[in-house]
UniProtKB/TrEMBL annotation, chain A:
Membrane topology: Multi-pass membrane protein
Organism: freshwater metagenome
The protein, known as: Unannotated protein
Coiled-coil stretches noted in the UniProt entry, renumbered to this chain: none
Domain ResB-like: 1-457
KW Membrane (keyword) present: yes
GO cellular component: membrane
Single Gene Ontology BP annotation: cytochrome complex assembly
TrEMBL record, chain B:
Domain Cytochrome c assembly protein, first and last residues per copy: 101-298
GO cellular component: plasma membrane
Membrane-crossing residue ranges in chain numbering: 13-36, 76-95, 134-154, 166-188, 209-232, 247-265, 272-294
Name of the protein in its database record: Unannotated protein
Protein topology in the membrane: Multi-pass membrane protein
Source species: freshwater metagenome
GO biological process, one term: cytochrome complex assembly
One Gene Ontology term of the molecular function aspect: heme binding
Keywords noted in UniProt: Cytochrome c-type biogenesis, Membrane, Transmembrane, Transmembrane helix
Location within or outside the cell: Membrane
């Protein structure tokens, strides 16, 4: 047991650093590890070498829980064998000195042998296993406690199988879908797709859906102004089973044959049209801007490599409810669309899209780009309301802010081990409740002489017997209501 | 009744409960002082070692009559405080037309009520007066912090919290938490009273109380964690993601499992006590520390 305690403490301690340091693959903030690297360039590589950004996938973490499970199996299997022997055996004979047991009483009765018979009947009715011999009743109850304990410990192994199922065969993906656009369930549609090593690449459920609309409600007054109140996405979907329309909300995913799409976030996608220096439309449509704060101050970029004669790029800030902050900086004051504004700056030059290097659609690679300046020589800036158009300096073209659409973030998960894990969890809970709730105990009733019997209780396990049990037995033994036990310990 | 009026009643009931519990603490303090004075004159308590002490020796009479007369008054005040708190929680729920645990203030309020009620239930039939003032003090601190720094007016839930599983998960967590609180206080009191290897009657009854409470709390906590996992599966598509809140729930669970094993390990009783206290510390950190200091998916509830 000491091994178990030490390993359990070790497991608890090993889990701590993962909650204090940013972790890869933990959903709350995908950029957290990169950010930590930037802020602690010397420390981060060392922590990384110790797997401290992947604690729960680290070999040393696995070593602790595997050791624990091996040690547990080593403990529990011999107990299974012993339990089997005990279940098939009779309750053992009484020890010579019953007064040494956990509770003991000596009672004066009218007729000892009748009392023994009554005691045996009483114990049987209380579901004890009873053996009557000449002058002694032996009884035992609560083997199920041991069974519960074994079920509980072994369920941990089942849980491991369930967890491993997800880790080896499942996948998890994230995608942002703009209102009116269609998502097709193939690997290249995802913004991020993490597939387990053994997952079948052809395993993606064939389906398609269009985000018909997305609606968000926020608190409109009081100290919790701007707190989210409800989100609803309406999907028109097509799967192998047919087609339909579904509303998706937090806690209420879209389920396509076991592949579930969870609504995990949302934001704004301003519709922007860029006409180039020749007046041709070089880019048009909604652009996803990533929210930066609770009031949906959002960042985004528009890359227009096809603009002629000069390619341009726009960097923008979208404010659903524009307001001037205390420090003179424009921010959004409320997450809903009350006073939408689009703040733009521009670059021209080589966007670097042709040399094949991977680029994020949310950031600009500033190498080879020149900041566009206004007539006064300062950086060119523009603030647009929906419907407005602004002319870029130097004959670069015009930008129109056509309107605002929303986008919804979906998280997609498929975990083939989760049913196994659920079964394991239920087994664990049942086993635990039985193991902790059912006392296991033995009782012996012995004839001392014609008018005296002796009772001894022993609890196996560390809980005291319920007093009601011994009181009820005492009552069953006593025929004479004036009779008092000489001692009850 | 208007929702606003109901919310106001909830606030009034909280104040009344604060008053009752403060009076209770004062009563206990006076009783303790009287008992200490009369103990100076009374014969020394009979200390019996070994397991027989559990049930064999009658309680030594060491406290003065006035102290004895005050104790039931203290218990009565504590019970009134608890009833007022439960009423406050119910009123808050009616005012918001939902379960009253949507933010930290409501958690604090419900947790205070749960600790007080739990202690009143488990103390019945046991001589555990030693720990009662500490429970009352803790409830007062929790309630005081909730009222002064966490107070928020009644409001709707953020969408992700609006789920049946939330109700199940949080209810189980609150019950387990209240039991853990009583268990930790009883364990600490027991360790203080049995310092130097003495096992007085009070200390063994406290140990027994702590043990029973932990045996009940552990499966409930296990259930709370499982319900949380089911909820996470419903909300995010994965049942376990090592979010800080989930991680600390796991740490709490493992520490209490270590505590139960240590109890069954020869010569580890005292260390087992410390493990229970460590488990409670992890639970508390999850409730306060993680919400306040560590960013994660669960931090939307608003401090
Ligand atoms: C994987 C982590 C483990 C967990 C979460 C766990 C949990 C538990 C729990 C909650 C109990 C009930 C305690 C009680 O009856 O008061 C228990 C009992 C027990 N455990 Fe474990 N255990 C683990 C690993 C182990 C290991 C490694 C061993 C062997 C060294 C072990 C051996 C036992 C035994 C023998 C009991 C029965 C104790 C008794 O009836 O008094 N367990 N365990």
């Amino acid at each position: 047991m000491r091994t178990a305690v030490v390993l359990l403490i070790l497991l608890a301690v090993a889990a701590v650093p993962g909650s204090l340091l940013p972790q890869r693959g933990v959903a709350s903030d995908p950029a957290a590890v990169a950010l930590f690297y930037r802020d602690n360039p010397d420390l981060a590589p060392w922590l990384d070498r110790l797997y401290l950004f992947d604690v729960y996938a680290a070999p040393w973490f696995a070593a602790v829980y595997l050791l624990l499970l091996v040690s547990m199996t080593g403990c529990v299997l011999p107990r299974c064998v012993r339990l089997w022997r005990e279940v098939t055996a009779q309750p053992p004979a009484a020890p010579r000195r019953l007064e040494r047991e956990d509770a003991h009483a000596r009672l004066t009765v009218e007729e000892a042998s009748a009392s023994l018979t009554a005691a045996a009947a009483h114990l049987r009715s209380r579901r004890f296993r009873v053996v009557e011999t000449d002058g002694e009743v032996r009884a035992e109850k609560g083997h199920v406690r041991e069974l519960g304990n074994l079920a509980f410990h072994l369920s941990l192994l089942v849980l491991l199988v369930g967890v491993a199922g997800g880790r080896l065969f499942g996948y998890e993906g994230r995608v942002a879908v703009v209102e009116g656009s269609t998502f097709t369930n193939i690997a290249s549609s995802y913004d991020a797709l993490t597939r387990a090593p053994l997952a079948d690449p052809a395993d993606l459920e064939p389906l398609e859906f269009t985000l018909r609309s997305f609606d968000a409600q926020f608190e409109t007054s009081g100290p919790r102004l701007g707190e989210p109140r409800s989100f609803t996405a309406v999907l028109d979907w097509v799967t192998s089973d047919g087609a339909g329309t579904t509303e998706v909300r937090p806690n209420q995913p879209f389920d396509a044959n076991g592949t579930k799409f969870f609504l995990t976030g949302h934001g704004y996608a301003p519709q922007i049209t860029v006409r180039d220096g020749r007046g041709d439309v070089a880019a048009s449509g909604p652009v996803i801007f990533l929210p930066q704060d609770q009031a949906f101050t959002s960042d985004g970029v528009v890359k227009v490599p096809d603009a002629r004669p000069t390619p341009v790029a726009l960097e923008g800030l979208f404010l659903p409810t524009a307001a001037r902050g205390a420090d003179g900086i424009d921010v959004s004051a409320y997450p809903g669309l009350v006073n939408p504004a689009l703040l733009l700056t521009a670059y021209s030059g080589d966007l670097g899209l042709d040399d094949g290097g991977a680029q994020s659609v949310y950031t600009l690679d500033l190498d080879g780009l020149v900041e566009v300046t206004g007539d006064d020589g300062d950086r060119w800036r523009a603030t647009l309301a929906p419907g407005e158009t602004v002319r870029l300096p130097d004959g670069l073209g015009t930008v129109t802010f056509d309107g605002v659409t929303r986008f919804a973030n979906f998280q997609v998960a498929r975990d083939p081990g989760k049913e196994i894990s659920l079964v394991a969890a239920l087994l664990l809970l049942m086993g635990l409740s039985v193991s902790l709730g059912v006392p296991r105990r033995r009782v012996w009733v012995r004839r001392v002489d014609d008018a005296t019997v002796e009772v001894g209780w022993r609890h196996l396990g560390r809980r005291r017997c319920a007093d009601s049990d011994s009181a009820a037995l005492t009552a069953a033994l006593e025929h004479d209501p004036d009779n008092h036990p000489e001692s009850t310990t | 009744m208007q929702a606003d009026e109901m919310a106001l009643w909830s606030d009034r009931l909280v104040l009344a409960s604060l008053a009752a519990l403060s009076a209770c603490l004062v009563t206990y303090a006076v009783a303790a002082a009287l008992a200490a004075r009369s103990a100076g004159r009374a014969p020394a308590p009979i200390l019996v070692g070994g397991p027989e002490a559990l049930t064999a020796s009658p309680a030594p009479v060491t406290s003065g009559d006035r102290a004895n007369a005050l104790r039931p008054a203290g218990t009565w005040l504590m019970a009134s405080g608890a009833v007022l708190l439960v009423a406050a929680v119910v009123a808050r729920g009616l005012a918001a037309s939902r379960v009253p645990w949507g933010n930290m203030y409501e958690f604090g309020l419900t947790a205070s009520a749960a600790v007080a009620v739990t202690f009143l239930v488990v103390r019945r039939g046991r001589r555990v007066d030693a720990v009662a003032p500490w429970v009352v003090a803790l409830v007062l601190v929790l309630l005081g912090v909730s009222v002064t720094s966490l107070y928020t007016p009644v409001d709707d839930l953020v969408p992700v919290l609006d789920s049946t599983w939330l109700v199940v998960h949080v209810a189980a967590a609150i019950v387990a938490g209240a039991l853990f609180t009583v268990g930790a206080l009883a364990t600490l009191a027991q360790m203080v009273l049995s310092r130097g290897g003495r096992e007085g009657r009070g200390s063994s009854e406290l140990g027994d109380l702590a043990h029973t409470v932990h045996l009940v709390a552990f499966p409930i906590w296990t259930f709370a964690v499982i319900a949380g996992a089911v909820w996470a599966e419903n909300a995010w598509g994965r049942y376990w993601g090592w979010d800080p809140k989930e991680t600390w729930a796991f740490i709490t669970w493992v520490l209490y499992a270590a505590h139960l094993h240590a109890l069954a390990t020869g010569g580890w009783r005292r260390r087992a006590g410390w493990l229970a206290v460590a488990g409670f510390a992890a639970f508390l950190f999850n409730f306060f520390g993680v919400n306040i200091w560590i960013p994660g998916l669960h931090s939307y509830a608003g401090v």
